[in-house]
């Protein structure tokens, strides 16, 4: 069984993430700047007493995940877009990871429905002792029944304190090799549905990064050192983005330079933007599940 204090922190993180997600879904509209939406969401997380577990992902159409607005990002939500809003919140390192999709084109409503319904069925099925492949099978069956495909190389994940992917993956399809079963802990489950081929590939561009280590053994310039020390103190290995370095470096150039230098020194892990390989449109819904003996808490529902 999980400690009561820990459960409470997971619940608080989940409640904040849920409220922010709902508000983001309400205010997102075509023509709105992604940067404005991202900053609104991240500010709200702090106001409610949490901190972002990762930069909010605002991924449009065939972009499945891992796009967060850059500094001075001019992109706006296009007319008729399929927009995924993926939000992470942590309270003292205990994480809630949740996503919803909105569309401004009625033609894509059934694509959203496929992912939403798959997650709904997971809520009914999941529990202590359930095997990961059973969840994957349920997700795949549900998405296929709508005439779409699950994205096979994206998966749900177990989480731990300050760790978003702590080792176990929950497939979005019937993967017989996923024989492990759920036990006490936190899990994010995220069915991705697409009208493309059902796979993503990494683009050459990354907007999200995380530290690989504290950097104490690496030779760093004064600015690099300040950035690394601050990130390590605040976030450990939790992801960050260039927008969050505004207070630490002077100007866009300096921020981008510092990130490039830290990449070259091997200190950063990159999360490349993920695009559907057939350029199909992608929908995603995600909740965080806390399994605690017989109890299942959907912290973000
Ligand atoms: Mn997520
Ligand atoms: Mn996730």
Report what the structure shows.
With 301 residues, this protein is α+β, with helices and mostly antiparallel strands. 32% of the residues lie in helices and 28% in strands. The strands form four sheets. It has a five-stranded antiparallel sheet, with helices on both faces. Helix 1 runs antiparallel to helix 2 (34-47) and helix 3 (109-125) packs antiparallel against helix 4 (132-145). The structure holds manganese (II) ion (2 copies).
Query: What is the strand tally?
Result: 14
**Sheet of most strands:** 5 strands, antiparallel
Per CATH, what is the topology of the largest domain? Creatine Amidinohydrolase
Q: Which percent band covers the strand fraction?
A: 25-35%
Which strand order spans the largest sheet, edge to edge or round the barrel?
A: 7-6-8-13-14
Q: Distance N terminus to C terminus?
A: 21 Å
CATH superfamily of the largest domain: Creatinase/methionine aminopeptidase superfamily
The CATH class of the largest domain is identified as Alpha Beta
Question: Do you know the CATH architecture of the largest domain?
Answer: Alpha-Beta Complex
Task: Extract low-pLDDT stretches.
Answer: none
**Backbone shape:** globular
Alpha carbon gyration radius: 19 Å
Mean pLDDT: 97
Q: In percent, how helical is the residue content?
A: 25-40%
- Helix and strand element order: HHEEEEHHEEEEEEHHEEEE
Give the gist of this structure:
With 301 residues, this protein is an alpha+beta fold. The chain has helices at 4-27, 34-47, 109-125, 132-145, 222-235, 251-264; strands at residues 51-60, 63-65, 82-91, 94-103, 149-150, 155-159, 169-171, 185-189, 192-194, 200-211, 268-276, 282-284, 287-292, 295-298.
